[in-house]
Each structure stands twice: as C-alpha cells, then as structure tokens.
Amino acid sequence: MAKSKKSKFKVDKHVLTPKHTKASEKEKQALLEKYNVTPKELPKIMVTDASIKALEPKPGDVIKILRQSPTAGTSIYYRVVIDV
Q1: What does the radius of gyration of the chain's CA atoms come to, in whole angstroms?
Q2: What's the domain count of the chain?
Q3: Given CB 3.0 to 4.6 Å as the disulfide criterion, which of 15, 16, 51, 62 pairs with 23?
Q4: What are phi and psi of 45, to 5 degrees?
C-alpha cells in the first residue's frame, strides 16, 4: 500500500478565523493605560492555541484580534498569552 500524503490544515488561514497579530510593547502599554488594567485582568489565550502558533507567542504577550462584523465593521479584541 502506498502512503498517502495528507496536507496539514492551517486554522490560522481559514476564512472564519479572525486575524491575529502580536501587539507591540508600545501597543500593549497603551492598552493597559487606556483601560487601567493589568495583563492578569485581560482575557486569556493559551500559548498552544492553533490560531496564534505561527506568531510564536510567549506567555505575557498580548494578541490583537480583528473580527469582521456586518453590523459593527471591524471589532478589536485583545488577549494575553498564558502558558499551560
């Protein structure tokens, strides 16, 4: 039997996955000051999440998520990366 080569599915490239980017240190500080929060108070995302794996995140990084909406246009969400 010949081995079939499976192509790997890349969830970060899927049409329904919103765009994820790593926020710069400057963006992170501005976000924390604007909302008067600490990184511990931000929503969390696991370092192992498939949608951010290509960004090579480290715990403590802030991920900026851009979601498209037919009613709101583009919405921005932030998540802090945590380890297992």
Answers
A1: 16
A2: 1
A3: 62
A4: -140, 135
Which has the closest alpha carbon to 40: 83, 80, 84? 80
| Spatial contact of 21 and 57, defined as CB atoms under 8 Å apart | no
CATH number of the structural domain spanning residue 30: 3.90.940.20
Distance CA 9, CA 13 (A): 9
Q: Which of 65, 57, 63 is nearest to 83 (CA)?
A: 57
Range of the domain at 43: 16-82
* Residue at 69 is within a domain: yes
What is the tens place of the pLDDT at every residue in 1-37?
455 566 677 777 887 889 999 999 999 999 999 999 9
Q: What is the pTM of this model?
A: 0.82
Measure CA of the first residue to CA of the last residue in the chain; give whole Å.
Answer: 40
